[in-house]
Amino acid sequence: MAGSWTKLTATGKTCDLDKITAVMSMLDNGLMIEDFSDFTLGVYGELVDESILNADKNTVKVSLFVPEEKSFNEYLSFLNERFSAEGVEVSLSVDGVNEEDWAESWKQYYKPIPLGKVTIVPAWEKYDAKDGEIIIRMDPGMAFGTGTHETTRLVMLMMQDEELSGKRFLDMGTGSGILSICASKLGAKSCNAYDIDPVAVKVAEENAKDGGCDNITVGVSDLLYGVDLSGGKYDFCVANIVADVIIRMLPDLDKYITPEAPVILSGIITMRKDDVMARITECGYKVIKEIKENDWLAIMIKKDI
Are residues 52 and 149 in the same domain? Predict the structure, then answer.
């Protein structure tokens, strides 16, 4: 690898190797897998840090290489969210870049992103809006969801084709809060956004405030357990998470949404499409539309009534 690549490594337990590999392969299939059961100090000596020296035979490392034109912070945040959703404990590290530099060094790759009538603009960049253009300014920090990943773009494109005015919006796996901010600017009456990661919740709250969206409420929730129903059921729902979490969430979703509510499911890698589709049918939903970008799929469903 030349100097234009950054190595991103997940260190975890050997028993979780299949899950770790599956999550990492959502971003890149060119993975490097290291099994520490055969590790000896050898010629590597001082290049090996203490955590690796102390690793037991149940420890593995899975690495991918991020090209310089991509934001490795976006990769990192995506992996944090997906591993958390899967319940897999890993330690993520980036070769040559320390944690304090992550939040700044990726900014050079984050530029305005046009998505239909919506354009996502970095909070620190000057940008003049065109007539009728909806601007979403983002400073995602360490949370996933800047609009650069396919999973986020697909949801935002789908949302623009739907009527959101006056609706109660539910955002599961909110990350940076970008989808709730988009819904707010598209006319949603109120937005409740949830994430399992407290860091993402804090970032989403700050982004909503900075974006002037005072109708967004953000909270911590594992699946649907923390969702607030005090204001009634929701008229529109998005879940940009991961296939396995979507499959676990779908049986309980109708308790939280109105019978007519559109639901957009994203974060689905195409190899898991059949599993998700089977669950959709099993839970009494019908597919309204689906769109795809690269290996990622977003599906809009409604209750089959």
Answer: no
| Domains contained in the chain, number | 2
Mean per-residue pLDDT of the chain:
82
Q: Taking the CB of residue 22, how many other CB atoms lie within 10 A of it? A: 19
Same domain, 151 and 96: no
Domain edge (last residue) among 51, 82, 107: 107
Token pair of 262 as six digits:
């559109």
Kindly state whether residues 294 and 192 are assigned to the same domain.
Answer: yes
Same domain (yes/no): 278, 162:
yes
Token pair in block for residue 185: 């600017």
- Tokens 């899967």 belong to 86
The pTM (predicted TM-score) of the whole model is 0.71
DSSP per-residue string spanning 22-68: HHHTTT-S--EEEEGGG---GGGGGGS-HHHHT--TTEEEEEEEEET
Could you report the per-residue pLDDT of 92-129, keeping only the tens digit for each? 887 755 545 555 555 665 677 888 888 888 777 788 87
Q: Judge contact between 52 and 95, C-beta under 8 A.
A: no
- What is the C-alpha to C-alpha distance for residues 98 and 96, in angstroms, rounded to an integer? 7
Cα separation, 243 vs 240, in Å, equals 9
What string of DSSP letters covers 66-93?
Answer: EETTS-HHHHHHHHHHHHHHHT---EEE
Residue 30's domain comprises: 5-107
Angle at 77 between CA 76 and CA 80, to 5 degrees: 90
Q: Are 175 and 263 in a shared domain?
A: yes
